Every structure is written in C-alpha cells, then in structure tokens.
Amino acid sequence: PASADFTTDVLVIGASQSGLAVGYYLRRAGLVYALLDDQGQPGGAWPHGWDSLRLFSPADASSLPGWLMPRPADNGFPARDAVVDYLTQYEQRYELPVHRPVRVEAVRRSGKGFAVQTDGGTWQTGAVVCATGSWRNPFVPTYPGQADFGGVQLHSAHYYDATPFAGQRVLVVGGGNSGAQLLAEVSQVARTTWVTEKEPRFLPDDVDGRVLFTQATQRYHAGQETAPPPTLGDVVMVDSVKEARRRGVLSSVRPFVRFTRTGVVWADGREEAVDAVLWCTGFRPALAFLAALGVLQPDGRVATTGTQATALPGLWLVGYGSWTGFASATLIGVGRSARATVDEIKLFLVYNKSA
Ligand code: FAD
C-alpha cells in the first residue's frame, strides 16, 4: 500500500543487537515504537557468520543491557549459534515488537517527522533510529582486470566453511581478524597466500576482546575516547590463528597489481594462477535508504553529534562503530549508545510536539 499504514513515535530500522538494545530502552521509556528487519529470522548478521565463528570475549563481556548472555557449557567464548540464541531470546524476553521480514526502501521527511517506505507499506514516525549495521554492505576493493577474472570471488560476508576451496589455490585478502581467521581455516585444505596492505599487527597471545574493551573503557573514562588506540595490534590471537602460526602459514605478502583471466600479476611482474579470491576487506554502513534525506557522505556515513544526525534532528544512528559512539559496534558496547540515544529521543519528541 502506498498510503501511511502505521504510526509510531519511534521506528528502529534493524533488529539485531543494536536495534534490540535501543528497543530495550524505548520499552522502558513507554514510547510507541517498532523495529523493522529485512531478515526472516532473529540475530541480524550473526546467523550469516562462518560456521566456526566464536566471539572474542566471554559471554559476560558480550552482553546487552538487562540480561547477561548465558555462559556456554564448555565455558569457552560463545559460538555463532549461541549469539543467535541469545538475541532470539532477548527479543522475546523483552517482548520487543519486531516486524520481519520488512525491508526499508527509503526514509523521507514528512510533516514534523518521517515517512518510512518499506516493501510492506509506509510508516509515519516522529523519530527514526538506524541500526542496520554493515553486513548488508560488504566492501570489495577494485583492481584492474577484475571483471575478466574467471575464478571465484567471495566476500567473508558470504563465507561459511572451507569445503568449496579444497585443493585450490586461494588468495585471502585483508589483514584484520576476518582475514587471519579465514586464512587459518582455508589453509588447512587449500594452498593459500595472505595478501595484506601492510604487515599485519598481531596482538599479544593473552589479549582477548574483554581486555581490549577494558582498555578502551579506561581511555573513555579518561576522556580520551577520540584519541587513537594504543598501537597494540589488530589481530586477536584466537586458537585457530595460533595454530596457523604453528603451521607456519601466517606470513603475508603485499597486494597484487591486477587480475588476469586466470589469476593475478604481482608488483614484480610475476604472473600467478589463482582459483579463488576470498575478500576479507570489511564493510560499509548499510544506509542507502537514507539517500533522499541528503545526509549521506561519500564514505557512506552520516555526520553525527553523538548518535544524532548533525544536519537532521530526529534521525539517530546506533552501532556502526566509533563514529556513532565508543565501542558501539560491539555487543557489550552498544548498550551505552542505545541508552543515550533514547534519552535524547524522549526530549526530542516532547519538544517537537510542542514546537
Ligand atoms: P547487524 O547484526 O548487521 O544487524 C543489522 C540488521 O539490519 C540486519 O538484520 C540487516 O539485515 C538489517 N537491515 C539492513 N538494512 C536494512 C533495511 N534497509 N531494512 C530493514 N532491515 C535492514 N562484536 C562483538 O562484540 N564481539 C565479537 O566477538 C565480534 N565478532 C565479530 C566477528 C565478525 C566476523 C564480524 C563481521 C563482526 C563481529 N563483531 C563482534 C561486531 C558486531 O558485533 C557485529 O558486526 C554485529 O552483527 C553488529 O550488530 P548490528 O545490530 O549493529 O548489525
């Protein structure tokens, strides 16, 4: 239907950890709100993580506001499916009004609020919170000849396990955690080369996500949250990466310069045949539906003050990374951004109604 079918005070787009954390505080605030998510199941990006994916932190350091993530039976770091279970139960526990699958196509100004156009009708709302993460917008760098390359190209967003790569010659591109972990896994069944912009920086073996979060929190409390993090490293030494180091496969080379139909050409001119390229090159915010509002920057972000769009009162962005709040793209960190956001929304709605 083209007309306004539904009306809320606040509409949250995305119902994974970031949207649920916002929902938790909206519920406490007693506002009329709904969450829209385009997936058929709870958990946002998490069900699409690779089969062996585990959190970097123990359950109690990976929890949303109000309810701790249950500790796994093996006391280890929670696996992908444990996170999905937690988010599924969280949504039920707090009776969060999630509508799915509903895809948001465009957000426009409408009166004092917004009209949110979806594939299931249009919502009229006083405020909008974007919590769409980045999984829906994988980033792949461009190289000359890429379109003619006859091999497989797969982004880590769509990787589940190493089986399709058995016996192949595979380039794993990207020096972050995804690159290191998928290199560790694929190198067990394939001939791999790890391609990174610069030499990867490995964290000390005993530094996990909890340690990183604690350090970041100390900086935050010291009022230095915008300062660059200490140069400890990027790659967390999870068990699979340590094991890859023992096997001697954790070395890397600098990028190739172009593709051929059957492989790549390296900077020294050497050609090499390649069956597949696994892009572990990150993501960009999934915010294309904001295009009509004129707030999207060339890098796909929105200028924010805290979590509110600087140029457009009534629009908030939660969970995208440090530009939307300290540690906001983590399970444990998003609660703080969510709470501050809902506090602002409450004031905004009162003021906007009376203005
Ligand atoms: P998402 O989980 O991506 O959810 C956004 C939801 O919005 C999705 O359901 C999406 O489909 C939906 N959506 C998008 N566009 C639209 C639209 N137009 N209309 C309707 N719905 C839409 N964090 C940790 O704290 N600990 C970890 O150990 C950890 N490990 C990670 C490992 C990997 C490999 C990755 C990629 C990330 C990891 N993170 C970790 C970071 C972060 O917690 C996750 O990326 C998390 O999924 C982000 O949650 P989110 O709610 O912001 O977004």
UniProtKB/TrEMBL annotation:
What InterPro entries does the record point to? Auxin_biosynth/cation_transpt, FAD/NAD-bd_sf
What is the name of this protein?
Answer: NAD(P)/FAD-dependent oxidoreductase
Query: What superkingdom does the record give?
Result: Bacteria
Alphabetical list of Pfam families matching this protein: Pyr_redox_3 (PF13738)
User: Can you tell me where the transmembrane regions are?
Assistant: none
What is the species listed in this Swiss-Prot or TrEMBL entry? Hymenobacter metallicola
NCBIfam families the record matches? ArsO_flavin_mono
Question: Which positions are tagged coiled coil?
Answer: none
Which keywords has UniProt assigned to this entry?
Answer: Oxidoreductase
Q: Which GO terms describe its molecular function?
A: flavin adenine dinucleotide binding; monooxygenase activity
